Amino acid sequence: MEAYRAASLFQPSNLVKAIERTMDPSLEPSYLYGSIMAFPHTMVARTIAVMGMDFVMIDALHTALDAENLVRIIHTINFCSEGKTVAVVRVPSAHSDLLTHALDAGAAGIVFPHIDTPAQAAEAVSKCRYASSGGDRSLSPCALVAGITDLAPPGSSHTKVADAHIAVICQIESPLALTNAPLIASTPGLTALMLGPGDMRLSLGIPPNEPNHPTFLSAIDTLVAVSQAHRKALMTVSFKLGAGDGGWIRDFRLLLVTADFVDLVEGHRRGLERGRGVVEGVNGGKERLNGVVKNGGEGKDERVNGAGQEMNGLH
């Protein structure tokens, strides 16, 4: 993403161009890799910003996040990565006050959830574009400093840069959205479509333990056909896919490959298992927990503080 950075890191990098490149038929298929950020802390932001991701999707939809912290996180990602990783924000809706703050802070993309109609898609685009581009985004008097952080190429301006750079991504998560997908994809200014696999399965009545349910795969086929017909990239979550689940992923150009919450859970689970394995190894296959020796899965305990005593010397 470094090649697409703006003149100032207070401004959005050109995510639109980066996404469009993934759909260029004259080039080999390419992908952008991202991570979902659900822990709204600058420590998390500055860590993931240097891990080599193309983008970080800050999930303001499912995270308790205030405007000031959102601005800090976007700046942290932009600056700590030196423009190599860009901030994308999933907002609660087109009417959320977080949208304005995300745009003014330099987010390179906005994800709008539950877009079911072309009218909703058009509204999403309009919220991200200034009046000079036919939108209704308000111009902040204090987001940039004149002559310092509002730099732009000759003949351009920071408002034109923002309108050209900021990607508008609409989530397709319902049967109605699938039906309207061709019209949504043809919305002027829309950059990409995102499949919300969890909500899509729920709306289609598909059990969560059937990742390859025919109805779900049919929905994917519909989105892929729309993507190819309208040259709009597709985005989705890929870290939940098993070895035999993801043949269709080749047609999705923006892939969310990690999530801080999921990785925290898995990391702690693996760490706990490793720690118990080490203890069992040094104790001859027996794990000592709170004064009780666990006998390697044999289903019985041995008291180590005396047969007549309770654990930890308590009676």
Would you kindly provide a written description of the structure presented here, covering whatever features stand out?
With 315 residues, the protein is of the alpha/beta class. 37% of the residues lie in helices and 17% in strands. It has ten helices and eleven strands. It has helices at 15-22, 42-48, 67-80, 97-105, 118-127, 158-165, 175-185, 197-204, 214-230, 260-282; strands spanning 32-37, 55-59, 86-90, 109-112, 167-172, 192-195, 233-237, 254-259, 286-289, 292-295, 301-303. It has an eight-stranded parallel β-barrel with strand order 1-2-3-4-5-6-7-8, surrounded by eight helices. A three-stranded antiparallel sheet has the order 9-10-11. Strand 9 (286-289) and strand 10 form a beta hairpin. Helix 7 (175-185) packs parallel to helix 9. It is globular, with a radius of gyration of 24 Å. It starts with 14 loop residues before the first helix and ends in a 12-residue tail after the last strand. The model is unreliable at 302-315 (pLDDT under 50).
